[in-house]
Hints:
Radius of gyration: 22 Å
Number of domains: 1
Mean pLDDT: 88
Helix content: over 70%
Strand content: under 5%
Oligomer: single chain
Low-confidence stretches: none
Amino acid sequence: MSAKEDKSSGPQRHEGLRQALQAFSFLGGIGIYFCVVVGICVFAGNWADDHWGLGYYGKLTGILIGFPIGIYSVYKKIRSIS
């Protein structure tokens, strides 16, 4: 490899690494955001189970409500970026 090839590949390689790290951090943030939204809904369902004695129906309702809310909120977050 010549010195000319090293200089041209260096900045391009760093730019690609920077873009990959940005994409990874964005997607990781979305995953954490989704888990937090679903976790809050499951926690609320678990609280309803304990408070009103619903059995497992409160937690199941929290899961069934949490996933669509989480998916919708992630969709809105992605749409706001693009």
